Please model this.
Amino acid sequence: MKKYGMIIDLKRCVGCHACTISCKMENEIPEGCFNTWVEEWDTGKYPNVSRVKLPKMCNHCVDAPCIEACPVDATFAVEGGIVVVDEEKCIGCGACVSACPYDARYMNSATNKAGKCTFCIQRAEAGMMPACVSTCISHARFFGDLNDPDSEVSKLMAENKTEGLKEELGLELNVKYIGLKDALKNGEPEERYRGGK
Ligand code: SF4
Ligand code: SF4
Model:
Protein backbone atom coordinates (compact mmCIF):
# COMPACT_ATOMS: atom_id res chain seq x y z
CA MET A 1 0.00 0.00 0.00
CA LYS A 2 1.31 3.43 -0.91
CA LYS A 3 2.04 6.11 1.67
CA TYR A 4 2.64 9.44 0.00
CA GLY A 5 4.99 11.90 1.62
CA MET A 6 7.00 15.03 0.94
CA ILE A 7 10.49 15.97 2.02
CA ILE A 8 11.51 19.64 1.96
CA ASP A 9 15.24 20.37 2.11
CA LEU A 10 15.55 23.75 3.84
CA LYS A 11 19.22 24.00 2.89
CA ARG A 12 18.13 24.15 -0.75
CA CYS A 13 15.11 26.47 -0.51
CA VAL A 14 15.94 29.97 -1.76
CA GLY A 15 12.58 31.52 -0.90
CA CYS A 16 11.60 32.26 -4.50
CA HIS A 17 7.90 31.38 -3.82
CA ALA A 18 7.59 29.62 -7.19
CA CYS A 19 5.97 26.71 -5.34
CA THR A 20 3.27 28.98 -3.92
CA ILE A 21 2.44 30.46 -7.31
CA SER A 22 2.45 27.18 -9.24
CA CYS A 23 0.19 25.60 -6.60
CA LYS A 24 -2.29 28.43 -6.88
CA MET A 25 -2.37 28.09 -10.66
CA GLU A 26 -2.61 24.30 -10.72
CA ASN A 27 -5.35 24.15 -8.10
CA GLU A 28 -7.16 27.42 -8.97
CA ILE A 29 -6.79 28.77 -5.43
CA PRO A 30 -8.47 32.19 -5.01
CA GLU A 31 -6.79 35.35 -3.72
CA GLY A 32 -5.97 35.23 -0.02
CA CYS A 33 -6.04 31.40 0.17
CA PHE A 34 -2.96 29.18 0.11
CA ASN A 35 -2.39 25.41 -0.10
CA THR A 36 1.32 26.02 0.39
CA TRP A 37 3.26 29.12 1.35
CA VAL A 38 6.78 30.09 2.41
CA GLU A 39 7.40 31.88 5.72
CA GLU A 40 10.58 33.95 6.17
CA TRP A 41 12.46 35.76 8.92
CA ASP A 42 15.96 36.85 9.88
CA THR A 43 17.74 34.94 12.60
CA GLY A 44 20.95 35.37 14.61
CA LYS A 45 22.82 38.47 15.77
CA TYR A 46 24.90 40.77 13.59
CA PRO A 47 27.29 39.91 11.99
CA ASN A 48 26.18 36.26 12.19
CA VAL A 49 22.74 36.60 10.62
CA SER A 50 20.88 34.49 8.12
CA ARG A 51 17.41 34.33 6.63
CA VAL A 52 15.15 31.36 7.30
CA LYS A 53 12.87 30.23 4.45
CA LEU A 54 10.31 27.73 5.69
CA PRO A 55 7.76 26.34 3.20
CA LYS A 56 4.56 25.16 4.89
CA MET A 57 1.51 23.17 3.85
CA CYS A 58 -0.82 20.44 5.07
CA ASN A 59 1.22 17.67 6.69
CA HIS A 60 -1.28 14.96 5.73
CA CYS A 61 -1.32 13.86 9.38
CA VAL A 62 -2.15 10.21 10.01
CA ASP A 63 -3.98 11.21 13.22
CA ALA A 64 -5.54 14.30 11.67
CA PRO A 65 -7.53 16.58 14.02
CA CYS A 66 -9.28 18.09 10.98
CA ILE A 67 -10.81 14.70 10.15
CA GLU A 68 -11.97 14.26 13.75
CA ALA A 69 -13.50 17.74 13.77
CA CYS A 70 -15.70 17.39 10.69
CA PRO A 71 -19.34 16.88 11.72
CA VAL A 72 -20.37 15.44 8.34
CA ASP A 73 -17.39 13.23 7.41
CA ALA A 74 -16.54 15.52 4.50
CA THR A 75 -12.81 15.22 5.07
CA PHE A 76 -10.90 11.96 5.16
CA ALA A 77 -7.73 10.21 4.01
CA VAL A 78 -7.80 8.41 0.66
CA GLU A 79 -5.41 5.73 -0.61
CA GLY A 80 -1.84 6.80 -0.04
CA GLY A 81 -2.81 8.76 3.08
CA ILE A 82 -3.71 11.97 1.23
CA VAL A 83 -6.17 14.03 3.29
CA VAL A 84 -8.89 15.46 1.05
CA VAL A 85 -12.18 17.38 1.27
CA ASP A 86 -15.36 16.20 -0.46
CA GLU A 87 -16.85 19.50 -1.59
CA GLU A 88 -20.24 17.87 -2.19
CA LYS A 89 -20.45 16.94 1.50
CA CYS A 90 -18.73 20.01 3.00
CA ILE A 91 -21.21 22.36 4.68
CA GLY A 92 -18.65 25.14 5.12
CA CYS A 93 -18.82 25.23 8.92
CA GLY A 94 -15.07 25.80 9.26
CA ALA A 95 -14.59 23.32 12.13
CA CYS A 96 -11.68 21.68 10.32
CA VAL A 97 -10.01 25.04 9.72
CA SER A 98 -10.07 25.75 13.47
CA ALA A 99 -8.94 22.22 14.35
CA CYS A 100 -5.77 22.21 12.23
CA PRO A 101 -2.77 23.10 14.41
CA TYR A 102 -0.77 24.04 11.31
CA ASP A 103 -3.05 26.73 9.88
CA ALA A 104 -3.05 24.59 6.73
CA ARG A 105 -6.77 24.92 5.90
CA TYR A 106 -8.93 27.84 4.86
CA MET A 107 -12.43 28.58 3.72
CA ASN A 108 -12.29 28.91 -0.07
CA SER A 109 -13.68 32.36 -0.79
CA ALA A 110 -14.94 31.21 -4.20
CA THR A 111 -16.77 28.07 -3.07
CA ASN A 112 -17.35 28.60 0.69
CA LYS A 113 -15.98 25.09 1.18
CA ALA A 114 -12.91 24.03 3.14
CA GLY A 115 -9.70 24.00 1.11
CA LYS A 116 -6.24 22.56 1.62
CA CYS A 117 -3.26 20.92 -0.08
CA THR A 118 -4.05 17.57 -1.67
CA PHE A 119 -0.48 16.75 -2.74
CA CYS A 120 -1.97 17.62 -6.18
CA ILE A 121 -3.87 14.31 -6.12
CA GLN A 122 -5.02 14.90 -9.68
CA ARG A 123 -1.39 14.88 -10.78
CA ALA A 124 -0.36 11.99 -8.48
CA GLU A 125 -3.08 9.81 -10.04
CA ALA A 126 -1.56 10.58 -13.47
CA GLY A 127 1.94 9.67 -12.26
CA MET A 128 3.05 13.31 -12.09
CA MET A 129 4.75 15.22 -9.31
CA PRO A 130 2.81 17.90 -7.36
CA ALA A 131 3.05 21.34 -8.99
CA CYS A 132 5.23 22.70 -6.16
CA VAL A 133 7.75 19.89 -6.63
CA SER A 134 7.85 20.28 -10.43
CA THR A 135 8.28 24.05 -10.19
CA CYS A 136 10.85 24.34 -7.40
CA ILE A 137 13.85 26.03 -9.01
CA SER A 138 16.36 24.63 -6.51
CA HIS A 139 15.00 21.08 -6.24
CA ALA A 140 14.19 21.54 -2.56
CA ARG A 141 10.96 19.53 -2.59
CA PHE A 142 10.66 15.77 -3.08
CA PHE A 143 7.51 13.67 -3.28
CA GLY A 144 6.85 9.96 -3.47
CA ASP A 145 5.90 6.72 -1.78
CA LEU A 146 7.39 6.42 1.70
CA ASN A 147 6.55 2.70 1.69
CA ASP A 148 8.75 2.11 -1.38
CA PRO A 149 12.34 1.72 -0.16
CA ASP A 150 13.61 2.64 -3.64
CA SER A 151 11.72 5.94 -3.87
CA GLU A 152 13.66 9.21 -3.70
CA VAL A 153 11.81 10.25 -0.53
CA SER A 154 12.61 6.96 1.23
CA LYS A 155 16.28 7.26 0.30
CA LEU A 156 16.35 10.85 1.57
CA MET A 157 14.71 9.74 4.82
CA ALA A 158 17.33 7.00 5.21
CA GLU A 159 20.27 9.28 4.42
CA ASN A 160 19.24 12.40 6.35
CA LYS A 161 17.82 13.42 9.69
CA THR A 162 14.29 14.53 8.92
CA GLU A 163 11.81 16.23 11.24
CA GLY A 164 8.26 17.53 11.09
CA LEU A 165 6.71 20.67 12.51
CA LYS A 166 5.35 20.49 16.08
CA GLU A 167 6.15 16.78 16.32
CA GLU A 168 5.35 16.97 20.03
CA LEU A 169 1.67 16.85 18.99
CA GLY A 170 2.21 13.23 17.88
CA LEU A 171 0.04 13.45 14.76
CA GLU A 172 2.40 11.32 12.58
CA LEU A 173 3.20 13.69 9.76
CA ASN A 174 3.81 12.82 6.12
CA VAL A 175 5.66 16.07 5.41
CA LYS A 176 9.20 16.19 6.77
CA TYR A 177 12.07 18.64 6.55
CA ILE A 178 15.82 18.38 6.22
CA GLY A 179 17.49 21.13 8.27
CA LEU A 180 14.46 22.04 10.38
CA LYS A 181 16.29 21.97 13.70
CA ASP A 182 18.86 24.45 12.43
CA ALA A 183 16.18 26.69 10.90
CA LEU A 184 14.28 26.80 14.20
CA LYS A 185 17.29 27.05 16.51
CA ASN A 186 16.13 30.51 17.62
CA GLY A 187 12.43 29.67 17.39
CA GLU A 188 9.76 31.07 15.08
CA PRO A 189 9.29 34.80 15.77
CA GLU A 190 5.74 36.10 15.94
CA GLU A 191 6.73 38.93 13.58
CA ARG A 192 7.59 37.19 10.31
CA TYR A 193 6.68 37.25 6.65
CA ARG A 194 3.93 34.67 6.22
CA GLY A 195 4.20 34.18 2.51
CA GLY A 196 1.34 36.52 1.68
CA LYS A 197 -1.16 34.93 4.10
S1 SF4 B 1 -1.91 19.56 8.72
FE1 SF4 B 1 -3.94 20.29 9.32
S2 SF4 B 1 -5.20 20.08 7.46
FE2 SF4 B 1 -3.39 18.81 7.18
S3 SF4 B 1 -4.03 16.75 7.88
FE3 SF4 B 1 -2.97 17.78 9.60
S4 SF4 B 1 -4.67 18.71 10.77
FE4 SF4 B 1 -5.49 18.21 8.71
S1 SF4 C 1 -15.96 23.02 6.75
FE1 SF4 C 1 -16.53 21.19 5.66
S2 SF4 C 1 -14.85 19.82 5.87
FE2 SF4 C 1 -14.64 21.39 7.41
S3 SF4 C 1 -15.63 20.62 9.23
FE3 SF4 C 1 -17.13 21.77 8.14
S4 SF4 C 1 -18.11 20.26 6.87
FE4 SF4 C 1 -16.25 19.34 7.51
